[in-house]
Amino acid sequence: MSAPHSVPAPDDVDAVTEAVLTASRLLVAVSARSLAAVDESITLPQFRMLVVLSSRGPLKVTALADFLAVNPSTATRMLDRLVAADLVSRAANPASRRELVVSLTTAGADVVHEVTERRRREITRIVSRMPSATRNGLVRALTAFTEAGDEPGVTDQAETFWP
């Protein structure tokens, strides 16, 4: 285990931002390894799309693009690949036949579940190496962080997903 880093003052936004950026690199690496172990053909942005559909349910393409912060044309290209892989499906919106609604398929839900379980195991291994007092503070800090970012908590969902 590496030497502990100094803890920034709670009001030092720059130091806290640097700590979050460093932690996010670790979490992205964990996510990438977990995804590659399940399906090397799915990119992280495509997996994020699967997670959004898993956590939010069926969505119109424009709403999905908004959740992903991409152009609808980018979302459509991603969807084309995921439809071809049978991970998502597109169907006419019953309320407006001009719009398409995108849903996760069973295979797509299975990918989200398996990748999430792999991530959970690796994060559990990392967290278990931390002192318990630090873990308690981490729970409070990360809960506040995700609430500030408007990300639904895992307890708000049937399963645990990306982040």
Automatic annotation (TrEMBL):
Which Pfam families does UniProt cross-reference here? Answer: MarR
What is one process in the GO biological process aspect for this record? response to stress
Gene3D superfamilies xrefs: Winged helix-like DNA-binding domain superfamily/Winged helix DNA-binding domain (1.10.10.10)
The cross-references to InterPro entries, in alphabetical order and at most eight, read: HTH_MarR-typ, MarR/SlyA-like, Tscrpt_reg_MarR-type_CS, WH-like_DNA-bd_sf, WH_DNA-bd_sf
Coiled-coil spans are: none
Q: Which UniProt keywords apply?
A: DNA-binding, Transcription, Transcription regulation
Report the protein name in the record: DNA-binding MarR family transcriptional regulator
Q: Which organism is it from?
A: Amycolatopsis endophytica
